[in-house]
Amino acid sequence: MSESEDKSASGAQTVRRALALLRLIACGQERGVRLVDLERMSGLNRPTVHRLLKTLVQEGAVEQDSETRRYLIGQEISLLGLARTRRFPLLTLADPYMSELADQVGDTVFLSIRHGHDSICIGRRTGRHPIQVLSIEVGVRRPLGVGVSGVALLASLGREESVELVRGNAARLEVMGERVEDVIARVEVARREGIAHAPAGLMPGTSAVAVPVLTEGGVALGAITVTAMAERLGVERVGMVVERMKAAAGGIAGRWGRVEGRAGQ
């Protein structure tokens, strides 16, 4: 390899590592992420992580909380994102179905998509019930398998691919207190049942259920999740909620197919 090729490869590796750190930091949202956790999740040594973080902070892509010392996504990244205000066409198509579903079931509806090894919440609509469970914010990025949306997305894939993705997230799952074996088991249950159901949600006293939004070819465009107080997703009601969710998912997928069909003509 020539000197110029060697420098090019080294530069590409640095960019990839910096972007990988940004994705991990994004998972922390307003809480931020500790340096030790960034090391564990990235697999990079401390000097490398520290060097990359220093540069990212200097460029405004990352901020460090002066009290907690945790790292957060910086203003520069937020400003860059404004350049693409229409970056989620699926959300535009799904919005009326999400709103109708929230009105029908009375609880909060979320739309999530898969991005690499992560699930990302891109939309949220609240229902009419006095108590709404706002378990996650729009923009939340989590390793696939953490939360019912990620489980539903994994269950829509082939068994081998889903297991590989979960194992690829092993270090991040460990930091979050999750075991790879447990996540794989939850995905298997969701694959058999066609839904991902967590009777005990991420917040105490809550429950969540998710279904995939599948194209005619079986490709997952995303996942719809409903979260509610646990008693509102008990055995006597969850069947009705899932039925409405599947109808909404079918409507979204059908509309997506029609739009894609027109675009291909």
TrEMBL record:
Keywords: DNA-binding, Transcription, Transcription regulation. One of its GO terms (biological process) is negative regulation of DNA-templated transcription. GO terms for molecular function: DNA binding; DNA-binding transcription factor activity. InterPro entries: GAF-like_dom_sf, HTH_MetabolicPath_Reg, Tscrpt_reg_IclR_C, Tscrpt_reg_IclR_N, WH-like_DNA-bd_sf, WH_DNA-bd_sf. Residues 76-258 form the IclR-ED domain. Residues 12-75 form the HTH iclR-type domain. Pfam families: HTH_IclR, IclR_C. Gene3D superfamilies: 3.30.450.40, Winged helix-like DNA-binding domain superfamily/Winged helix DNA-binding domain. This is Pectin degradation repressor protein KdgR. It comes from Achromobacter kerstersii.
